Structure formats: structure tokens, C-alpha cells
Amino acid sequence: MTRYLLITASLLFFMVSSCTKDTGDTVSEDLESISIPEGFNWENSREVSFTIGVSDARFEEAIHVISIYDADPLAGGSLIARGAASLINSFNVKLALRTSLNAVYIVKTAPDGTSVTEKVAVNGALVSLSISSEASGKAVMQAKSSAATSATETPCTRSITVSGDYNLGTDNEVICVSASNITVGFNFNASSTVRITGNNVRINYANLNNNSKLIISSGVTVSAGSINLNSASTYFENNGTVTFDGGFSLNGILTNNGNFAVNGNLDLNSSGTFTNNGTITVSSSFQSSSNNTALNGGKITTNDSFRLNSGTFINNCFLYAKNEYHNNGTMRNYGYVRVDRISYLNSGELGLYNTAMFSSANLTMNTGIRGYGTASLVKVSGVSTINSGAVSGNVVYCDQNGIETNYGTFSGGAKTGCDLYIPVSSCNTEGNGTAPIADRDGDKVADAIDQYPDDPTKAFNNYYPSNSPDAQSTLAFEDTWPSKGDYDLNDVVIGYRYMIVTDANNKVVQVNATYNLIASGGTNHNGFGIEFPVKRSEVADVTGGTLETGQDKAVILVFSDSRNEQSAWNTIPGEPSAPVKTYNISFNVTSKPQINSFGLGAYNPFIWNHSLSRGVETHLAGKSSTALANTSLFGTQDDRTGSGKYYVTATGLPWAIDVPQSSFSYPAESKDISKTYLYFARWAASGGANYTDWYSNTASGYRQNSFIYK
Q1: Boundaries of every domain in the chain
Q2: Does the keyword Repeat apply (predicted)?
Q3: What is the pLDDT of residue 14?
Q4: CB neighbour class for 513 (10 Å; exposed up to 12, middle 13-18, buried from 19)
Q5: Residue 30 has what pLDDT?
Q6: Which DSSP string do the residues of 325-357 spell out, in sequence order?
Q7: pLDDT tens, 131-148?
Q8: Within 10 A of 586 (CB to CB), how many other CB atoms are there?
Q9: Phi-psi bin for 706: left (phi > 0), alpha (psi -120 to 50), beta?
Q10: Cα–Cα distance for residue pair 492/186, rounded to 1 Å
Q11: Would you state the pLDDT for residue 523?
């Protein structure tokens, strides 16, 4: 920058006429005359403390990994922090988050690799929560019905608002029962649709023929006498709650996405098509005899027996028979089947896929059991009677008392045993065994979730701003302290990024930093360094920088003369530019402070005027000087450091800012930042509450693009 220490007021004018705050108060165009709120330190980030606990008891006191992302990790979100938590100890960390970030995603990963994700609002200075064991099920087939979607979305052609019996004889008609607390009956004599949208509706009877459809909307409660699907193409969909007086016999298509209760038998007949994505309870028996494949992606509970008489039944989630299970067809179990009394495997096949589980009190087998994919489990707590048939494939047969009668065979990898680990989930409420946790380095963090599985001194990487390869924050300095500069904030422009390595106890063991000297806009010979929140004696093995002597705290000097580092200023458009210079710094922290006290943020970066004295330091507003600063300069010229304030003028203006953006477009030489970024003054006048995107928003009116260095 041009070296004029006397600054005219015109250099501080803000280039938006008649600017007003969101509150309606007038904001002056002159930065010197606006009111900077007391204590405002020109921060574009705020400090947030996180306390993340674990209530997942599946692994007793084993370590789970907590990861904090700045957005949905499945949609490209970047990792910020990672650490250990257990039933005993929470993961505590203090993060600097950009002010515009309103939510984070927290992922808990268990020792077996299963994970749970929570989106958490960031509204204050503290975020505290405990994450449980709930995990997604293993559904392997999509069980939604395209027919249901189109029928549900079709507009109504007429409405029913009074009780009565209705004969429907018009094809493609869509009748909506929109009234609540009424009683209706239907004879479908054409391919029409009835949609129940009113609540507490009683259906005395519904006789569906041809291609007719009956839809119960979400949130609706219905009681039913008899609903008869009289052909294979008739369709019944429940998205709410339906309760039958007696049994239900299915000859057409049933899709249940809600709660479906039958006070009697539920019979799936030969022409029936069955899909369950919700919850079905049957007071008597569930009998499946369909020639079509039946799909269960939800939960089915029958108080008596489940009988697979023929055909194929796919269980993707939860099937519970409180009395007996009879297998005479093909059961493809991807989830969990529980039988309280006895299972009879008479014919067909019981197939188990990819960590599925079949749990029965007693079991009598006359046909085959086969395991597919990763190992699955058959678990018998009582008596096993294997009269014939083969147990084959990747399946483990667990009889806790030993197999009492065995005239069958085990082949193709099948074996007996009870140690196979099957995790508890929303579909499998029982599970089995203890998760095998490989831990080569013995630090109690499972190899699968340890970023350093062969180094017991390290476990996790934490980042500021994030782990995105191009992520960095940008420091922009004026180098005229204690006099004000021209507020182009380009005398030293440095991008930086940290990777902080912690151990299994969330203690900091190593600091890795990358600094990029982007611009050095002026003739001053400036040095750059960072003070870290540990004692100098607690730092070892420094590479890429210098551990400064004479300091109480650890101060790392990156360079001492910017003019030796960069041949051009990179601030004057049209003049030759110099390449960005990169510095990689690393050091070990022998005292191992907790990450919660060490923090993740900018720490305390500063420049000093090498031409004048090492003691002429310039820090961010609110940051204290190092032990080598010339404190006699405090309060001189334009500086008003004192009484808990650091590096601000009498009107609260700073000499440096930290912008949490890797591609911050800094002002060209002698271009006041408030005239370059047209909401900078409003942001400052609001104490950082308004226009938090002043630096990143490229919409019209936010920037004077001709003032930005390109």
C-alpha cells in the first residue's frame, strides 16, 4: 500500500448513500462516526462449545467416534472435528464456526462401524446432546408402490360429507370422504377410487371390484367392518391408522404405510399382493399363500402364528410370531424374525441374508436353512430337532443348550456357535454377541474408526476451517500500527488451515498448519507469526518454522521479512504479480492439553514491522500481544489498547480481520474495504449480527467489483 500515515476522512467514507440498519436506524457513511458496539472484535466467526455424549450401551464402555460436519456429510459436508466418546466420557470441543453457519451435522460411529447422524441447530455458545444406538435397518428392496403415489395425488372429482351406503359405477372417478365422524359403505362397480381424508371414519363395508382403489390418507383414523378385494387388480392403501373388527382376507393389492390392526386372521391368498412399510398387528394368525412375492419393510406382529403356506415372503425388517412359525414356502429374511414358542421348517427354504437373524424358542427342521452374503444367525434358546435337511452357506446355528437331535447336515461354510455378532437396530431388537473390535495399537479406539490404527499416540484429525482440500480462512492486515492505515487491509494477506491431531483421550498431540502468503501490499518488511495456547516448553520437534525464544507461550515464526518472501505486492492491478508462497508447519505438543481447552480456530496470529522493531506487533482486535511486544506503544497515536481492549482505535476500528473464506477477494491498493464491500459498515455497526455474508455474497449491491484486486 502507499505509505501515508496521515489518513484523510474521505478514505473512511462508506460508498452506500442513505444506508440503514435492519432496525431502521440510520447508519452513517463515515466509518469514524458510526457506533461500534462495545466489545465487538470484528469476528466473522463465533466460539461454540460442544458436549456430545453417548447413550448407546451395546458396547459397554467402548469408545465411539463423534464427528462434527459443517453440512450433511452425505451431500458433501466437510469434517471439522472428531473425537472419542463413551458411556462414561463425552466428547468436548470448542470450535470457531463462521457466524453464518446455523446448523452442524453430528455423526456417532460405533466400534462396529454403524453410525447415527443428527442435524443440530447452532443457536448459542453451547451445544449439548447425547446420541443413542438407533441405526437404520437393512432393507434391501424398495417396498413403496408407484400405484399408491399416483392414486394418492389424483385430485378429487367429488366429495362425500354425510353417512350412507354408496354404489360407485363411474370409471376413473375419485371420491373423497372429507367429513369426519361419519359411517359409510361402498360397492365398487367400476374402476373408481375412494380416498378417506376425514378423521374417525367408519367403513361398514367396502366391496372392491375391477381396478377400484381404496386409499386411507396419512393422519387419518378408520375403523372397518369388512373390506373385500375381489380381484387381483383391486387396490387398498393405508397411510393412516385402520382397525378391523375381525379378520382380513387379501385377494388384491395391499400397501400399508401406516398402522394396520386386524382382530382375527390376516390371510394373504393366492392372488394377493402384499407390501408393508408400516406396522401390522394381527390378533390371531398371519397366513401367506400368495403366488406373488410378499414384502415386509416394516414391522409385523402376530399374537398367534405366522404361516408361510406357499410362495415367497421377503422380510426386510421385523417379523414376530408370539406362538408358532410354519415354513412351507420360501422365506428370504434380510432382517429379524422372532418366534416365542416353536418354529416348524416343513418344506421350502429358510434363507438368511447379510447378518439376518432368526430367533426361536424351539425349532423342528425338515427342510433347508441357507445363508447368503455375510454371516447370518439362527438362534434357538430351547430344543432343536433336526430331522432332515441341510444347514448350508454362510450361516451360524446357535443352540444355547447344544443341538438335541440332529439327523441333518452342515455344509458350505455353515457351522454351530453362539458368538456371531449381530447388532441391535430398529429392526432387530435382540441382536447377538459382542462386537469384535480390532485394535492393533491398543488405544481402545477400534481400527475401523481410528485414523491412526497403528499409532497408540494418535487417533483423530481435527480441522480449521474444515477438512475440505481447498478450505482455508484468510487474515488481512494493515501494517501501520499504532497509526491507522488506508483500510485496504492488504498489507499482509495470509490464508491458513490447521489439522490438529488428538489421541484416544481427545488430547492434542500434534499441530499441522499450512499458511499461504497471498499478498504483501507495501514496502514495509513484515514478519508473521502465531501464538498458540500452550507454554513454549510444551512444544517440541518444530518443522517448517521457528519456535521463538524469549516467549512464555509457544510462538511460531513463519517468516520475518515479507519483502524477501514475495517479489511483488499482488495488490496493484495491471502490475506483475508474484506466486502465492506456501509454508507447512508442524510441531508436537508434549503437555497434551484437551482439545476443548486448546480449541480449533485462528489462535493468535500477528505481524510485526521488521523495519522498525520486533516489538511492533499487530494482532486481531481483542487478541493480546506476545511477551516480546513493545507495550509502551499501547495507547499511542491511534491505538487505544487498554482496559481489556486490544488493537482497536478510539472508535473501535481494527488493524486486522479474519475472514472464514478461502477465496476472499481482498481490496486493491488504497481501496478502503468499506467502499469495496458495501455492507461491511452495516455489519460492523450491528456488532456482527447483520449481513454476516458481507464478504461472500456476490449479489448486486454487495461489492464494488472494480475495487477488488484481480
Answers
A1: 45-131, 161-416, 461-670
A2: no
A3: 31
A4: buried
A5: 58
A6: EEESSEEEESSEEEEEEEEEE-SSEEEEESS-E
A7: 987 533 333 333 333 333
A8: 17
A9: alpha
A10: 80
A11: 85
- In the block, residue with C-alpha cell 511483488: 568
* Residues 273/296, Cβ–Cβ less than 8 Å: no
- Nearest C-alpha neighbor of 683 from the set 7, 17, 22, 10: 22
Q: CA nearest 591: which of 509, 513, 511?
A: 509
The cell for 110 is: 460405533
Cβ(290)–Cβ(273) under 8 Å? Answer: yes
Q: Which grid cell is 329? A: 414356502
Burial 7-38 (b: 16+ CB within 10 A, else e): beeebbbbebeebebeeeeebebebeebebee
- As a whole number of angstroms, the distance between CA 234 and CA 254 comes to 9
CB atoms within 10 A of CB 344: 21
* CA distance linking residue 127 with residue 109, whole number of Å: 19
Q: Are 503 and 468 in contact (CB under 8 A)?
A: no
Outline where DSSP puts E strands in 217-272: 221-229, 235-238, 241-244, 248-250, 253-256, 259-262, 266-268
pTM for the model stands at 0.64
- Cα dihedral 148→150→151→154 (10° resolution): 150
45-131 in CATH: which number?
A: 2.60.40.10
Q: Are 177 and 194 in contact (CB under 8 A)?
A: yes
- Give me the pLDDT at residue 134, please: 59
Alpha helices, DSSP H, located in 330-480: none
674 φ, ψ (degrees, to nearest 5): -75, -20
Q: Cβ contacts of residue 184 below 8 Å, gap of 6+?
A: 160, 163, 164, 165, 166, 177, 201, 202, 203, 204
Length of the chain: 710
